[in-house]
Amino acid sequence: MAAKTEIPGSKPLQRADVRAAAGRMIICGFEGTSVTQELREILREVQPLGLILFARNIESVEHVTELVRELKMLRKDEPLFISVDQEGGRVQRVRKPATEWPAMRKLGAIDDAELTRRVGLALGREVRAMNFDVDYTPVLDVDTNPKNPVIGDRSFGATAQAVIKHATALLMGLNGAGVGGCGKHFPGHGDTDLDSHLALPKVEHEMPRLREIEWPPFKKAIEAGLDSIMTAHVIVAALDERVPATFSKKALDSLRHELGFSGIIISDDIEMKAVADHHTPTEMAQLGLAAGIDVFLSCKRYESTLELFRGIVQQVENDTFPQLELMAADKRIRAWRDRWYKPPRPYADTKHIIGCAEHHDLAHAVEARYQAG
Hints:
Elements: H1 15-23, E1 26-28, H2 37-45, E2 50-53, H3 61-72, E3 81-84, E4 86-88, E5 91-92, H4 104-110, H5 113-129, E6 134-135, H6 160-176, E7 180-181, E8 183-186, E9 202-203, H7 207-214, H8 216-223, E10 228-231, E11 235-236, H9 249-258, E12 264-266, H10 273-276, H11 281-291, E13 296-298, H12 302-317, H13 323-340, H14 347-350, H15 357-372
Parallel strand pairs: 1-2, 1-13, 2-3, 3-6, 6-7, 8-10, 9-11, 10-12
Antiparallel strand pairs: 4-5
Helix pairs in contact: 1-12, 4-15, 5-6, 5-15, 6-8, 11-12
């Protein structure tokens, strides 16, 4: 075992403090549409930063609003931070009677930044009305590969300029509604021909191409105030031939130092086949921490979340991941949570917002303008 890292001006963390900070490095999913015994065990053992909800957890708009409210009331001192993928188009976990938003490609095609900002604001208002704190959007990938099976119309367009213009506008609207955004998927998932949910894609572009096409949307979103970015489970050969960007220190150092990002780096789901077929959750804890991941997404399986948590604790206790780095990550994580967390409100107080006529009219106006060309 390595010698414990000296922490200038402070005492080494106690085991309980290490476990608490390790738990705050995890956002997890769960099975079912209620607070199950298994979920209670995860909340007790792991004490995660928060939860991510999927369609499988949602019965109706009223149900999800009250479920998130119940979840947030389970912990008084450190309430759960609740997140969702509500992009629009193919990826929106809450459907009617909530407003169903068009795919982001349609906003890029219309090319009206103010319209995109208004959609972001309306989307954010509904997400916040359902008591969510963070929405994993905007997609910052540039859609340069027509055969891409996973990005496609989730992207605002096929040029960096289109993505910059509309992703930053959407982010401004979302943040204006009091909801945190999360840009994805760094260092770029736009030009792949495999879906990382099912396999491990590889991007062969050299650094000049990355700097010209893939990275400008991330840089501009950071300059616009984006404070969390999700990684791609994609091997980018120019950065690292061995492991996907999620586990590549060179890739994440580029995000920190070349693009100037000081916020939260979030892994894509560790249960996706691109990584789960090659590494255990324990190995992913080691690889992710070494690369610079702040928060891991573990989106479904109880066993994966538990093993991931124990792997993080083990890395700190072995001093493979120094306490000083744990404390620095924990400071970032707490600041992010404190910026976007809001106490929950009952459905009766927010139902007039979710799927309101104004938002439906806006969604229909987007469709009409897109169809009109």
